[in-house]
Structures are given as structure tokens and as C-alpha cells.
Amino acid sequence: MASLPKLNEKYSMFSCITDDLETKGFRFLFSAKDNLTSKDMETRCGSRILEGYRPVFDATAIDRMRKAGGKLIGKNSMDEFGFGTFSTNSAFGVPKNPFDPERSCGGSSGGSACAAALIDGHISLGVSTGGSICCPASFCGVYGIAPTYGRVSRYGLIDYGNSLDKIGLISSDPNKLTEFLPVISGKDPKDPTSCAQPEPGPKGRKIRSAAVPKEALESISKDVRSSFESSLETLKSMGVDVKLTEMPFLKYAMPAYYVLASSEASTNLARYVGMRYGRQDGDLTLKFDDYFASFRSEYFGDEAKRRILLGTYARMAGFRDRYYAKALKVRLHVISSYKKVFAGCDAVLTPTMPFAAPRFDEISKMAPVESYSADYLTVPPNLAGMPQLSVPCGYDGGGMPIGMQLVTDHWAEDPLLTFAADWESVFETRRPEVSP
Ligand code: GLN
Fold first, then answer.
1. 31 lines ligand 1 (CB under 6 A)
2. Taking a C-beta distance cutoff of 8 angstroms, is the pair 76, 33 a contact?
């Protein structure tokens, strides 16, 4: 444990680490994405606007982990308010990929996946609005699950998109997902959207058939294709019936998601005006609207500003029907496309990301739409509120991990958890070589 701060200097997986690294008396250690409130540590959501914010309460997911004997050792670096695919929009250190520090950990739960890959037996809480658990799990070569929307209470989560946000788990050990998903799951009177479904856990339900939508394979890299294809062979040898299918509607999920997520985000961010939460040190001699504008201009990052503009525009009278209302209709079609497949099949199977973790110099040259497009496989299940799991399934020529994503119907986490454990016994996972 003594080397944790040193490790963090190199990899920046924590935006904040506890001063008290005493582990005696605790059953396990965990970390949490920095958009989950915690009593004993600052919660800043990767944003300068929340600097100094010390919540007076724990998020339910953190509270339940502590009650199960866990010690929260740090808050994980993340893209500002969850806006991003590479964690490069983090104001407090950009997490570096454990397999190659010149590359991204993915986003927006990049720090959570980085900690899961670097620390033995570690479990971290992540949050997925549009794929932000599966993406970093895939880039960092670990297991990540974002359960059904409503499975885990969102109380204490600093909202990005309330109708989309799902809290989940990341670890290098799939058994930890099985162990801890029931811990954080369940009805919470403090979150009316949390549900009282029976606890998830392996009850013998297996994935016996999986459908691969052919559209998913159109824009993937050569390395991803070859790892994915050899994984299909492994799946067949495990007795999974794999078939090709068509889900033409999936391509509309990504644009609809960015309209809906930005719309919700733009209202959620309206509360950060320098009067409550975090920084409140603007120039008080200004008129109130100038005060708000100067404060928000100074402390929100570029991507947050872009989402505010996009979301406000999509919700404006005159444009609302064309964008926001239409995106809601697309969402229903995406849900029914999945339901149709699930009528004859247990899971939808795709690569998680279309490429392995890119280098930071490559990311800096990407236009915003290019990086949004990278989410085209991880966004659809999130838009549909369905559970999604990413498992490592290969390595490219440079040794960077590649991930495979399985999506099941609402509330069908059990077969995903069983699959993760079965997969670990047939797939040879590599751990990063770490030199602090
Ligand atoms: N990349 C997506 C976005 O920027 C996903 C983010 C997320 O799931 N938090 O919106």
C-alpha cells in the first residue's frame, strides 16, 4: 500500500487518495469514480468548478461498500462530469494506460479501470451514461459491468444524464463483480428510480446463444476483428451458439444518445454557478448574470461548454420536436430492436470498442464527432438501459488489450456474471508490467 501514492504519480488513476492508508479492520479496499459523493474526501467530478466540494453524505453505492467492510482508498480520475471517451477531459490528472502510459485508459471511468488493472484484487465503482464502464475496461484489459438501469441506486451520484446513468463495477477479477454487484444493488428509498428486483448472482443461468449484429463489425480495426473472430471460436468451444444477425437500427443510437445525454447534462449543469458546491470565489461586484457567466466561462472545461450548448439547443422551443422528441422515439426503437433479438437469443455480442487504446497525441488530433463515434458499440445498450459486460478478449500487435461486449435483456445480469467467470477460465488474461 505504501507505493500507492507513487504509483498514482505515474498513472494518475486517483484525483484524490485517502491520507489514512491503514487497512487493518477492513475486509477489502475499493475506489470510486469521482462523481460519487463521499464524506471523507473531496468530490469534484473531474471539474475545476467543484474544487473544494466536500459532500456531507456518502452515495448509496459507497455507503453499501463501506457497510460490507470496504475501505474507500481514493476517488478515481474521470472526464469532467463524464463527458468523454478517453479521460483526457479530466481537470485533475489524466489517467495513463497501465499497458502503455502514452495511451489512454478510456473514459469516462478511466481512473476506475486503471486502478482495477494496476492494483491486485481491487474493485472500483464506475458509472456509465453512454458506455463509460465498458470502454475503459476494454482499453485497460479488465472486466467491467454496467447493470440494468435502476439496479443500483443513483443517490449521491452527481448526475450526467439522469435517465441513462448506471453505476457498476470494474475489476481484473470477474469474481469480484459477482461478489459486489449484489452489495450495491437494490431498492433505495432515496432514489425512486431504483428497483426491488431479486438480487443478481450466478444461479446457473448461462449464455447459451449469442447474436452478433453484422453492422457492429463494419468500422472496427484489423486487430479488433482478428481478436473478436478468434473469441467467437472460443465461445463455440464453450458451447455457445453464435450466429450473425442484423440490427440496422443500432446506428441511430449514437446520435440519439448525444442529443438526449447533452439535453439532460445541460440542465444538470445549470446548478453550478459559483453559489453552492465547490468554488464560490467569483467577483462579487459583478451583476448576478455577469457573475454566473464569468464563473462558468472560467471553470467549466471546453467539452462541458460544448455539451451545454448542444443540449440547450436540442431542447429549445422550435427545435425540441426535431431533436429531443425525435431522439426519444429512436430510443424506443433501439429497445425494441434488442427485445426482438432476445426473443430468440440470450445475448448480443460485439467488440467493445472499434480500436485498442489510442495514444494521447492521436486523441488530441480527433475532432469531437470522431471521438463521439468511437462509442457506437457501447452507447446502444446504455440508451436501452440494458446490462452490458466487457471482458478482455485479445491483445493487438503492440500488446494493447482488446475487449468484447455482451448485452443481455433488462435484469438478466446473472448469465453475464456466470459468463465472466467462465470466460476467465478459458481466456489467458495478461497483467500489465508495472514499474512505479
Ligand atoms: N463518451 C460518452 C460521452 O461522452 C460516454 C460517457 C459516459 O458514459 N459517461 O457522453
1. no
2. yes
